Amino acid sequence: MARYEQIASDLRDAIVRGDYRIGAQLPSEAELALRYSAARGTVRQAVALLAAEGLVGSRQGARRIVLGSERSQSFAELHSFAQWARSMGYRASGTVLSSQRRPCSPSEAVRLSLEPGDEVLDVLRLRRLDGEPVLVERTVYAGWIAPAVERLDPHCESVTQELYESVGLVFAYGEHLIDAVAAGSEDARLLGVRRGSPLLRQRRVTTTQEGRPVECSDDRYRAGSVTFSIRNSTAANPLVRRAGD
Amino acid sequence: MARYEQIASDLRDAIVRGDYRIGAQLPSEAELALRYSAARGTVRQAVALLAAEGLVGSRQGARRIVLGSERSQSFAELHSFAQWARSMGYRASGTVLSSQRRPCSPSEAVRLSLEPGDEVLDVLRLRRLDGEPVLVERTVYAGWIAPAVERLDPHCESVTQELYESVGLVFAYGEHLIDAVAAGSEDARLLGVRRGSPLLRQRRVTTTQEGRPVECSDDRYRAGSVTFSIRNSTAANPLVRRAGD
DNA sequence: AGCTCTGGCTTGTTTGTACAAGTTCGCCTA
DNA sequence: TAGGCGAACTTGTACAAACAAGCCAGAGCT
């Protein structure tokens, strides 16, 4: 672990623990540099990390202030339902309801950088939180990863983790579209809600470290079961509104 | 504009223009430093900016790659409906339906850092996109900003901009919770949808540069009208799932 | 042909220095 | 008391240098 990550971790712990309350000032960079025997640049990297997490804010000339005190794991949580659930103290489970190969559609070809007609693997999963069904996942995997996905246990808890352990696949980048939709008849049946009731939809495309698209997915959460949270500042964070599409 | 922002801007333009296609490699830091006659550190700040926007990805040892080519304005868009609409080429309008002072509730006191019983301003707005009602906004302003809000034109297009021009107020930080809910009878009537139909809800708390809370709001979008979008990488971005609350 | 290994390239981390720009707060004055 | 001024403090920007760590392609070997 890099020095600046250690310092960031130390400061984050102090904030989460309540040593610095919300609205309070953080020590100056110079003071932190002295305390940790590090160069000012290193301290700046540490606090930049906290700023990106939304825990602290900063303005030129004034001391940094504490904006929040909740820790967030950010990336992994957004990609792996199981990892998120575990970190929140829930018990996650899941079932593959169907899994079949088929040629990709034109729109899938674009999103997964495939040639029209290339084969993809279409998987439908139902995921539960403490036994309650909360999420219907319709995922389309690119053909080159399909064999590894088909080898997975149908009741596999964390797909992300299994794929990492079996073929070393790492999900590195993702784009996510979030909106609300009415439950279709299949959604309704699987989630145990009425048809037409509100669902929170997350559509995503995930790629490897090399920028190679792995999967695109349409995930639908039962209303009330899950909330997305984001902290942002004038400086950063690419969460944007888009016109309906 | 800082040197690193100029460099970032230049590279971003090149990416958006298509000089570097998705999946392509960016020039090395050394080469960019030479091209722009800047230190390597300055170039690193520039590409870090692009990485935070989700435009490029990077791994130690390998050249940086282009992940996306769409420009996003991020923060302002998430806070100002009008500014977002304008940048997307829509015509935004809005109407204040009710506005009244009242003592704050206990939960509002916590979120806005007020004393229990302090006065707040409760405003209900309906916002339209090209004439179509798409958003019901229920905003609670802290007492100290209430006078400035009450002076606003009831049909004011951009509250954010007006408050900046009239009292120099800048929204600097925000926390946002995004989920799906069913339309209540008032929501349904205002948005012209059936009761119980799905809405995308964004609850937010906004603070000034000094970390002083200004407003908290419950915004509900008609399904299909608006989508939130986020790019993330293993390195960054604080969009997280939360258990329903 | 297929494999390993190595050397060069590229990004990541850290330190040090200098100056610019904005904030804060106390002091002084009107 | 109210306001203005300025000095000290704090964060932002930029440059330079050095080493660590990971990636990749080409050379050489089996």
From TrEMBL, chains A, B:
Residue span, HTH gntR-type domain: 1-69
Top-level taxon of the source organism: Bacteria
SUPFAM superfamilies in the cross-refs: Chorismate lyase-like, Winged helix' DNA-binding domain
Gene3D superfamilies: Chorismate lyase-like (3.40.1410.10), Winged helix-like DNA-binding domain superfamily/Winged helix DNA-binding domain (1.10.10.10)
PROSITE patterns documented for this protein: HTH_GNTR (PS50949)
CDD domains the UniProt entry points to: WHTH_GntR (cd07377)
Keywords attached to this entry: DNA-binding, Transcription, Transcription regulation
UniProt KW Disulfide bond keyword: no
Record-linked PANTHER family: MANNOSYL-D-GLYCERATE TRANSPORT/METABOLISM SYSTEM REPRESSOR MNGR-RELATED, MANNOSYL-D-GLYCERATE TRANSPORT_METABOLISM SYSTEM REPRESSOR MNGR-RELATED
Protein name listed in UniProt: GntR family transcriptional regulator
